[in-house]
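Researcher: Can you fold this with magnesium ion in place?
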Amino acid sequence: METKQQDSEEENPFLDYREDTADEWMRAVYRMYTRQKQREAADAAEGREFCPVEEGISAGGRIACLKSWGVPERILKNLEGLNETKAVKYVREFNLSPREGWCLVLSGGKGTGKSTAAAVWLYENVPPEGAPTYQTRYWWNGTKVARTNGYAKDYERMIQSKLMVIDDLGVEYQDKNGNFQQRLDELIDERYSNFKKTIITTNLNAEAFKDRYGERVADRMREGFAWGGGFMELSDDSMRKVRKVR
Ligand SMILES: Nc1ncnc2c1ncn2[C@@H]1O[C@H](COP(=O)(O)OP(=O)(O)OP(=O)(O)O)[C@@H](O)[C@H]1O
Ligand SMILES: [Mg+2]
């Protein structure tokens, strides 16, 4: 049987961005990922069930790391016993996209697993040796971004950070004179210009998103989608357990 050789970067839609970055941390995460894949292939070749080997920092260490990156406890506790939901699948694909595919939007109704999937993405990018300092915040929610002043240190961090999750964008209050809109515009523009991987979760659908944040923001995102990421609409029903009130 003939198999298609994927030897050039252009031909390979799944060039892992961690491979093409100069960043030592991302390369280390990539090496770990590659070893995992090799074990998986070896197990498959010998008919064994694949049993992933925990490498690098322990699960507990990763959770501690995520906590210091600002992931809320409510989301952290979801990270045990996960199913491969659509949202999780999308973030894993996003991890394999080149840097140019810098943005993934998870859009959908309440409880479709968007925030959990965003946390899975951070979890899988915890550096293997453990980062020496976890001082940076990678997890922000829309409201917090809206409240941050454009001259604040936090805003600079949002622009610079290697990874960023903006959780629940769309619920924040929009001031009448468009200050937030302008800041978001600049933030997106900076992250777009420097290929800084960004995941946004929102309850807005693509149309409402564009109406709210404007053509310029939508355009910056769309450009990256050709390489990876995308505006993913999740239509699954809510997975949140509802406690019946009698
Ligand atoms: N991959 C998963 N496997 C199993 N359960 C999950 C998974 N993802 C989410 N859940 C469950 O679904 C619930 C809702 O998840 P989550 O908070 O991520 O949804 P959401 O889409 O961010 O919702 P909202 O729009 O309200 O913010 C969680 O309480 C969690 O228990
Ligand atoms: Mg959420």
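Model: Folded with magnesium ion in place. The first helix runs from residue 24 to 45.
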